[in-house]
Structure formats: structure tokens, C-alpha cells
Design goal:
Order of helices and strands: HEEEEEHHEEHEEEHEEEEEH
Strand order of the largest sheet: 1-10-14-12-11-15
Oligomer: single chain
Strand content: 25-35%
Radius of gyration: 34 Å
Length: 296
């Protein structure tokens, strides 16, 4: 009788463990990344030059048209001086010829004067066009805000004032106050297949793949958004591991957060047995090994 009781207890315990192991729970794939605004004005140097003035600091509020940065280009200023000199010389010569023509000339001299006047007018027109192009380049040395928002940039004065910039070099961002947010997340390549399966399981519902997350500055605040896209190529992380970029739809407004704040996230990939969730890395290792050996 005692043996039957022990057997019964053992059976019940085994059945309970089996049921627990098969209990379906949500599989959450870990990811980490940054919280970024969807909209931003990235300010680049349109021309190479020396930063003579930077009128804003990190966190400053600007409106369209505000001057943010002033550059000076000795090369463009030299070109302008040479161009203006050539233009003044051509205009003076044309004025002299017109004065001579007004006094009256005949024969070959008149034809020569008319020919030179035509050449000078064509040269002056070309120089005026060059001056217009050069003036636009000089105007681009003054960088302005194109949208209202907040300036984002670290140590701007120390990094740029009095220093040369190359054409196309990035200086700072202006983030609109009403810009929605999104997550730029990286997930390990070994975990990506679960995300791909969840994202592609139902094309009509693919945007309902939930991503829960918290920022590193407010870990007590749990938020949710949905997956929007998955990068088509993997990248090598600084630690030498392959990872793939995920992008979410607009995340909820996060008052007080700064662009680029760190994020820890979980991608909800559907329900799986508890045993698989606990031992999935071991299962995945066995699966990959079997595939490599041609058994799977």
C-alpha cells in the first residue's frame, strides 16, 4: 500500500512538472538600443571653413531662421576678391570703349570697338553669374535653423569654435518639440529567427508585434510600442557579434527624455512552452549543430 502511495505521488509530481514544462508563456527576445526622434534637422557644413561663432548650446530652443553657426572661408573670400576685381576691370574697360564710341569712330576702328564691346559684355555677364554662384556659397557659411525645436549636441563650443570644418561635416541636430519617437534596437543574430517568424506570421498583423521597453534613465517606467521594420543586413557589433537593427513605430511620448538615451527592450514573439523558453539557447545550439552535421 505504501508503495502504491509513493508511486501515485511520484506520478502526480511528474505530471505536474510536465504540465508546468508545457505551460505556454510569451517568448520575449531581448534587444537593446537607443530612443531617437523620428524627425530632426541634421546640420552639416555646406562649405569648408573656420567656425568663427556658434550661437547656441545643447538644449537651446530655436525657431526657423535663427543663426546657429557662422563660418569663414579664406579660399572663398579670395575668390570673391579676384572675381570682383576682374568684374570691375571689365566694366571700366567697357565704359571707356562706350565713351570712345560716343565721340564717333569710323571704319576699322569702329568695328574693333564694337567687337571688343561685345566680348566685354559677354565676359561681364559670365562674371556676374560666377559672382551670384559664389555669393550663394558665401551665404551658406551662415547656418540657420529650418525648423523650431531644441538643439542637441555635446560640448558644441569646445568642439567647434575656432576649429576648421570640412564640407559635409556634421555639427548638431535640431529636434522639433512635437516629433514622435522611435526605437533603434539591435538584436543578436542568433535570436533573429524568432523575431522574423513573429513579424512574418501574418502580414496583415505584422505591425502588431509588441515591443516592451524602458529607458535607462527611467527603468521604473515600462512602455510599449510595435515593431515597424527589420534591417535586411546584419552588422558587426563593437564586441564582434553579429546583430540586426530593428525599428519600431512611433513610441509613446517620453517627457524629459533626451535623443539617444539607452533603451532595454523585449520583442514579443508569441507563446512557447516554458521549458523551451528556459532552455531555448540549448535547443538552438543543438538545432544548429544538427544542421551543420546534415542530420536535421
Amino acid at each position: 500500500w505504501s508503495s502504491d502511495v509513493c508511486s501515485s505521488d511520484l506520478f502526480e509530481q511528474s505530471a505536474g512538472l510536465l504540465l508546468l514544462a508545457l505551460l505556454p508563456l510569451e517568448l520575449k527576445i531581448p534587444a537593446s538600443g537607443l530612443l531617437e526622434p523620428v524627425q530632426r534637422q541634421r546640420l552639416y557644413a555646406a562649405e569648408s571653413g573656420l567656425v568663427t561663432e556658434l550661437t547656441v548650446n545643447d538644449g537651446a530652443t530655436v525657431v526657423p531662421g535663427d543663426v546657429l553657426v557662422r563660418l569663414r572661408s579664406d579660399e572663398l573670400e579670395l575668390q570673391q576678391a579676384e572675381l570682383l576685381g576682374a568684374l570691375a576691370e571689365a566694366q571700366a574697360r567697357l565704359a571707356a570703349l562706350e565713351s570712345t564710341a560716343a565721340r564717333g569712330s569710323i571704319g576699322t576702328a569702329a568695328l574693333t570697338i564694337e567687337s571688343e564691346q561685345a566680348e566685354l559684355r559677354a565676359r561681364i555677364l559670365s562674371l556676374e553669374q560666377q559672382r551670384s554662384v559664389l555669393q550663394r556659397r558665401l551665404d551658406s557659411l551662415i547656418l540657420r535653423a529650418t525648423a523650431a525645436g531644441t538643439v542637441v549636441g555635446r560640448d558644441l563650443q569646445q568642439r567647434f569654435v575656432g576649429r576648421p570644418l570640412l564640407r559635409g561635416q556634421w555639427l548638431l541636430d535640431v529636434v522639433p518639440a512635437d516629433s514622435p519617437w522611435q526605437l533603434q534596437l539591435d538584436v543578436a543574430e542568433t535570436d533573429l529567427r524568432h523575431v522574423l517568424q513573429a513579424f512574418a506570421s501574418d502580414p496583415a498583423a505584422s505591425r502588431h508585434v509588441t515591443v516592451s521597453y524602458f529607458t535607462e534613465t527611467t527603468p521604473e517606467r515600462q512602455l510599449q510600442t510595435t515593431l515597424a521594420s527589420i534591417a535586411t543586413a546584419a552588422e558587426l557589433s563593437p564586441r564582434g557579434e553579429l546583430q540586426t537593427r530593428l525599428t519600431t513605430t512611433a513610441a509613446p511620448a517620453t517627457s524629459g527624455e533626451r535623443p539617444g538615451v539607452g533603451v532595454q527592450a523585449s520583442v514579443h514573439c508569441g507563446r512557447r512552452p516554458l521549458l523551451y523558453i528556459l532552455l531555448r539557447r540549448a535547443f538552438d545550439f543543438v538545432r544548429r549543430t544538427a544542421l551543420l552535421q546534415g542530420v536535421y
